[in-house]
Design goal:
CATH topology of the largest domain: hpI Integrase, Chain A
Structural class: mainly alpha
Strand content: under 5%
Strand order of the largest sheet: 1-2-3
Mean pLDDT: 85
Number of domains: 2
Low-confidence stretches: 1-8
Shape: globular
Number of strands: 3
Helix content: 40-55%
Order of helices and strands: HHHHHEEEHHHHHH
Number of helices: 11
Distance between the termini: 71 Å
CATH architecture of the largest domain: Orthogonal Bundle
Amino acid sequence: MIFMPFSPTLLLISGSKPATRARKISTIRIFFSYLSQKANLIESNPAQNLETPKLDRRLPKYLSLDDSRKLLDVSENDENDENKERDFAIITLFLNCGLRLSELVGINLQDIDFNEYKMNVIGKGNKERTIYLNKACIDAIKMYISVRPTEGLKNDSKASNKALFLSKRRERISNRTVQYIVEKELKKAGLDTSKYSTHKLRHTAATLMYQYGQVDIRALQELLGHKSISTTEIYTHVSNEQVRNAVENNPLAGYNK
């Protein structure tokens, strides 16, 4: 069996963005690897030496410290919201702990140790890790628990009766409901919901801790549950970008003799 040269394929790749090209090249390599090693239709993989383009790492979008405070303030003080305590606790945990959406939804009452100011969450790969809670988190959780429904809870496959956060139907809150809550609170704070989301609140927590808390990068990696330190290092890039901007904005930047 004879295969055509790569020119049509390379033409298809050349007009794409770096991330798209990298994905397509990976697919091509896997395809020809199968033809050569599994199907034995060709002697060698002609795509083996295709170069993968260097990808520019995007800086994460995150709320400023002032916007984060504004979001907490509107969430805590909305007297017209019957779920005010629950929603405030959700926003507080996102902004203070950098939780993933699935981790927050999965929290059970028994996971929280109020004496030691900590809780256990289940992260990616079903790995359990400890999250240490500050006073703001403990106070927000306690405030919510004081009004959390205790009767008519569903003992279902989602263990709703054990869940910390409950929906109006008195079952474990869903990912989509949490996303709706975050969007609602962002709108109330006058923040752009096309730019920010539950995951952006995770970015915000990590960025604020790194910039203001003088947190060691390894400690931040542990807190966020990142498998690789390179994933966590994106938050140091955010800080470096701010340093660059500070130099560029120096009033002497345009001075020439």
